[in-house]
UniProtKB/TrEMBL annotation:
One of its GO terms (cellular component) is mitochondrion. One of its GO terms (molecular function) is tRNA (guanosine(9)-N1)-methyltransferase activity. PANTHER family: TRNA (GUANINE-9-) METHYLTRANSFERASE, TRNA METHYLTRANSFERASE 10 HOMOLOG C. The keyword Transit peptide applies. Residues 180-372 form the SAM-dependent MTase TRM10-type domain. It is found in: Mitochondrion. It comes from Neopipo cinnamomea. It catalyses: guanosine(9) in tRNA + S-adenosyl-L-methionine = N(1)-methylguanosine(9) in tRNA + S-adenosyl-L-homocysteine + H(+); adenosine(9) in tRNA + S-adenosyl-L-methionine = N(1)-methyladenosine(9) in tRNA + S-adenosyl-L-homocysteine + H(+); an adenosine in mRNA + S-adenosyl-L-methionine = an N(1)-methyladenosine in mRNA + S-adenosyl-L-homocysteine + H(+). This is tRNA methyltransferase 10 homolog C.
Length: 411
């Protein structure tokens, strides 16, 4: 009997336990191995009770349940994979049909797509993913374009630096600078004077004074490069004023070397009054031709709020002649004030001095301020428009009278 029990233990260990280990079953979940080995406690009198038989049916049920769990786990994974593949195929079909479908869809996005309750919800979700992908592509493209532009700008700056360092260009710049200085020096002796009135510091804020000085610096540069430059005079200019400090910021050490005349005196003390003409947009007199014998005065003022009549009142107090540019005669002006910047005035006066052509001179007026040049004066056009309007109103008045007579006939 002992040999039989040993054989039974070996059979159980060799057959049942490896199968249970393969199917992931624990020993405490499989207690029948111990019952199989120990239930056959045969007595010495060779008598076995019927209740001590092997419970093979329970053992089969446990084995089948373990196998079914494993099979269900192995089957569920292919089902999920097959459903994801089917979803990807539907997405490809929708893409071929011309619907908004993103190019790259992750597994998580596919799962959320499958969980959508309706077809419209699926379409909306796919459209959201498509737009999101499109925005990412656009951002990436913009970043690449910026990078290319930055690289091109760096290459251009490197090229310009190389050209600047070339000895020929340096020699050319120095010779041209000397030529410009020679012209400006000649204009101080033989040139026509042009006066900038620097007495408007109290009428402007600090920012407006800074803008005025910037425009004056540009005006001085235009005049210096002209064929026949003006002799620039800064009159009513006081030391240690806002004007002076702003000029020092721009010119620094070159301020004392400028080929212009700076004086604290008024222009009426420097020049005769009969030759002075104050250019202001508020003047009732229109400038017809450029007079080379006159000395024109330009008010050095930039006002954001457009204070009307300030320069005209100053000219009247001093008893000076005034004039305005003929903008209405040559330009079809839009709504707005007819004030120009100081550098624009300088370019207009230089062109008039060289060519005496108003159309060429008024090309320096910003194009946003006018519609175009006119063949006839604007005053004549206004007269014709007023005549047409009066004729229209007259016809309309007759029509109204006839309609009133029809509606309310006399008894």
């Amino acid at each position: 009997m002992q040999s039989a029990t040993l054989l039974l233990k070996k059979i159980v260990r060799s057959s049942v336990l490896p199968v249970a280990a393969q199917h992931g079953m624990k020993r405490d979940l499989f207690p029948l191995s111990r019952t199989l080995s120990l239930s056959l406690c045969v007595k010495q009198d060779n008598s076995c009770k019927p209740s001590e038989k092997l419970d093979l049916d329970a053992w089969k049920k446990v084995m089948k349940s373990g196998l079914q769990e494993e099979v269900s786990e192995t089957v569920s994974e292919p089902q999920e994979l097959s459903s994801l593949a089917a979803a990807r195929e539907t997405l490809e079909m929708w893409r071929l049909a011309g619907r908004l479908v993103p190019e790259n869809v992750s597994d998580e996005q596919l799962k959320t797509f499958m969980e959508c309750p309706s077809k419209s919800a699926k379409k909306k979700y796919l459209k959201y993913l498509y737009l999101k992908e499109l925005y990412k592509k656009n951002d990436k493209r913009k970043m690449e374009e910026k990078r290319e532009r930055r690289l091109e700008a760096q290459e251009q700056t490197s090229k310009t630096d190389e050209t600047k360092k070339s000895p020929f260009l340096c020699l050319w710049a120095s010779t041209m600078d000397k030529a410009y200085n020679w012209r400006a020096a000649q204009s101080m002796i033989f040139g026509q004077p042009l006066v900038f009135d620097m007495s408007y510091e109290k009428d402007m804020s600090v920012r407006e004074v800074a803008n005025t000085v910037k425009q004056l610096v540009q005006s001085e540069g235009c005049n210096r490069k002209a064929v026949d430059p003006f002799h620039i005079h800064f009159c009513n200019f006081k030391d240690d004023s806002l004007y002076h400090r702003e000029f020092l910021k721009h010119y620094k050490e070159a301020w004392g070397k400028l080929l212009i005349t700076v004086t604290e005196q008024c222009y009426t003390e420097v020049f005769p009054k009969d030759k002075l003409v104050y250019l202001t947009a508020d003047s009732p007199k229109v400038m017809k031709t450029f007079d080379h014998d006159k000395i024109y005065i330009v008010g050095s003022m930039v006002d954001k709020s457009i204070k009307r009549g300030v320069s005209l009142a100053r000219a009247k107090r001093l008893g000076l002649e005034t004039a305005a540019l003929p903008l209405d005669k040559y330009l079809l002006w839009n709504t707005g004030a007819k004030n120009l910047t100081l550098d624009q005035m300088m370019q207009i006066l230089l062109t008039l001095k060289d060519t005496a052509d108003w159309k060429k001179a008024l090309e320096f007026v910003p194009k946003r301020k006018y519609c175009g040049f006119v063949a006839k004066p604007v005053s004549e056009l206004k007269k014709t428009l007023d005549l047409v309007n009066t004729l229209k109103l007259g016809k309309r008045r007759e029509e109204v009278q006839k309609q009133f007579a029809k509606n309310y006939p006399k008894k």
